[in-house]
Structures are given as structure tokens and as C-alpha cells.
Amino acid sequence: MNKMLSFLGIILIFLGIILMAYSNTTHEYYVIGDVVGEGGTAENPTACNPELLISDEPATALDVIVAAQVLKLLRELKQKLNLAMILITHDLSIIAETCEKIAVMYAGNVVEYGRVLDIFKEPLHPYTQGLLSVFPGIKASKTRLTSIPGLPPDLLRPPPGCRFNPRCKYAMEICRKTKPELVAIHKEHYVACHLLKS
Ligand code: SF4
Question: Which residue, 132, 106, 134, is CA-closest to 121?
């Protein structure tokens, strides 16, 4: 049953992406499943080849083989149609394999932004460090995986200052009072943390 649902899901996703990419209708935006395409103009509504593709959790709940096929298709469409692509995901392996840049968000704020290679190699924000430390590496030496303590905050009443402060092992007095700005630490690498200064 699960395999059947996965198969049905992948067919729908494929159809959705292909329809979105090649659609020649009068809409400026396309929302198909979890994929959103933007293209066309009010002046020339038939010129609707999309320029931007946004995909929200493109591989969630899919098995690894199907997920790999979906990502391959997204990459091919991106290349063939010269699309810009934004992926929203919790899956770090998808980011590592598919993206050039990454914006790490915590409780609604971007806390680190930069090139994927730089951030995977040297994460600077404590939340990014925590995220990467809970992700097992195939070639990494055998170590016990750690988790980030605590729970995400209530966004109706977020903690003052840095929103990560109740869970951060480096939290200082200033962290509980002042929200850190996103500042450039290196070229193309931005971090919002009081521990770091540009
Ligand atoms: S600003 Fe403070 S609490 Fe927030 S991540 Fe940096 S050290 Fe931790």
C-alpha cells in the first residue's frame, strides 16, 4: 500500500512539474502540489515559461529512490529551462546535492547564509552547527549523534533577543536582550550571532 501511494505521489509530482514548466496558459503563477512556478507577464500572458521554481519539501515521505528521481528531474528542468530554483527543506542531503547557496532559518529568522560548500565545511552559527552534528556522515568516524536540546519557541511569544538563546550552550547576557544582526563574516558568508563579529 505504501509503495502504491509513493508511486502515485511521484506520478503526480512529475505531472505537476512538467505541467508547470511547459504550461502555456494565461496564469502568471502556477501552484501544483508543493511546487510553485512563476512566469509570464500581464502584457504577454502567453509567454509563460517559468523563471522561478519554488519547491517545498520536494522529497518528504518519498523513499530514497523516488526522491532521487524527483531531484534529478528538478535539476534537469533547471538546466534545460534556465530556471532559478528555491528548495525549502529540512533534509540536509538534498541541500548538499542540489543547491549552491543556503539560508538557514530558525524561528522565522535567517541565522546563517552563504555558499553550501562553505557552510557545510565550517558552520558558524550554533544552530547550524547543531543541525549538522545530528546528521550522520557515511564517511565520518563512528561517533554518538547529539541532538539540539529543548524545543522550538512559540512564535506567538518568541524569546527576546536571539530566538535561539534558550537552547544555545553559548548564550550570554546580551543574547537574552538584543537580537543579533545578520552580518558578513567572510565574503558571501553571513551569520547572526553575538559570538561573531565581522
Ligand atoms: S546570539 Fe547568543 S544565543 Fe544566539 S546563537 Fe549566538 S551565542 Fe547563541
Answer: 132
Beta-bridge partners for 38: 29, 52
- Summarised one tens digit per residue, pLDDT across range 53-99 is 888 888 877 888 888 888 888 888 888 888 899 999 988 888 988 89
Which of 106, 124, 194 is the best mutation target for the ligand 1 pocket, counting ligand atoms within 8 Å of the beta carbon and taking the most? 194
- Long-range (24+ apart) CB contacts under 8 A made by 45-49 are 48/23, 48/24, 49/21, 49/22, 49/81
The rounded Å distance from CA 137 to ligand 1 centre is 26
**pLDDT tens digits, one per residue of 98-132:** 899 999 999 999 999 999 999 999 999 999 999 99
Q: What digits encode the pLDDT tens for the residues 123-167?
A: 999 999 999 988 777 777 777 777 899 999 999 999 999 999 999
How many A from CA of 60 to the centre of ligand 1? Answer: 30
Q: Domain limits of the chain?
A: 1-99, 101-198
Place of cell 548564550: 171
Cell 535567517 sits on residue: 110
> Cα(176) to centroid of ligand 1, in Å?
9
DSSP tag of 104: E
What is the pTM (predicted TM-score) of this model? 0.75
